[in-house]
Specification:
Blueprint: H1 3-49, H2 57-79, H3 83-88, H4 94-125, H5 138-165, H6 181-185
Amino acid sequence: MSTDTASRTRGPSRLYAAEDALARVEKVIVVVAMAVMFIAGVAQVAVRLGGVRSLGTDEVVTLSMAVLVFVGAGLIVRTTDHIAIEVLQYLPDPRMRRVLRGIGLIALVVFGFVFGYYAWDFTSTVTGERTLQLGIPVVVSAGAMVIGSVLIVVHAAGALVRLVMGEDQDHDGGMNVPRSEGEVSGR
């Protein structure tokens, strides 16, 4: 194998490994956010049933939900569990799936940049603002939007690079949908 071929092959593979490491961190963040949201939600119900004044757990739930949604959005792009990928699996022509996957990834990159721009603009307007009960900086939940948009761009651009370089697997989003009669019957 020539040096040029080896370096071209390693580039997307390194990118994939870096994205994989990033996705593992995202998974931890999403799981922690979900656990915090669940615990705070249960605590809120218990507090309300006990007739005690709210302890601000609703603010914790809201913050956790923002982190879960926006960091989770980047993770969904990485795991290809979003609707665009699922719909592509029903197309019989692999070239058509590849072209449409590329168009979808370009749209995701553009969306990530546009959303990131507006998220950054919003985040800059809420610096210094705090929640009413616990005093949690609002910039934390607003910052989750910015982080989520960056993750969407990183994962969509990485998938686009792999698609162009020919390293992209023909994803099915975890659905294992048969694409042809031969796959259904095992021929």
